[in-house]
Amino acid sequence: MANAVELLVKDHEKMKTLLGDLLKSDKSASERTELLGKVQKELSVHTQIEEEIFYPAFADEKSPASKKKMYHEAKEEHRAVEKLVIPDLNDTAPSTMEFMGRAKVLKELVEHHMEEEEEEMFKMAEETMTEDQLKELGQKMAARKKELQ
Ligand SMILES: [Fe+2]
Ligand SMILES: [Fe+2]
């Protein structure tokens, strides 16, 4: 059974592959639409398990400012992607250069976000939580993921 960090990093790897495919120049408009749909679905489940389960376990009211800062920054990045970038992409014809420009920005934002999570938040989580806690969180997230999919 994957612990919390392993589960989230695995999601990130899947997301990188999907975003890489979305940016490939040989994709047809219908393939781009399909890929964007997959990215949107994956992102929505992933951000939901992070916000519902992982982030609150990582930082609460009593946590040091450094943790709370990471928590709030990460949440705002989720919001920017979900409320601005993805809706814009859904409103753009997938055959256009405008779509590809927006897809590139989506890829860069999401990759930057995942990198920060892995390099800062997840590292700190591994330092401040026990292996049992991380395993328990992993189980909770795996179960919630099943419900959401
Ligand atoms: Fe995230
Ligand atoms: Fe993440």
From TrEMBL:
One Pfam family matching this protein: Hemerythrin
Limits of the Hemerythrin-like domain: 4-125
InterPro entries according to UniProt: Hemerythrin-like
The protein's name in its UniProt record: Hemerythrin domain-containing protein
Provenance organism: Hydrocarboniclastica marina
Lineage, uppermost ranks: Bacteria, Pseudomonadati, Pseudomonadota, Gammaproteobacteria, Alteromonadales
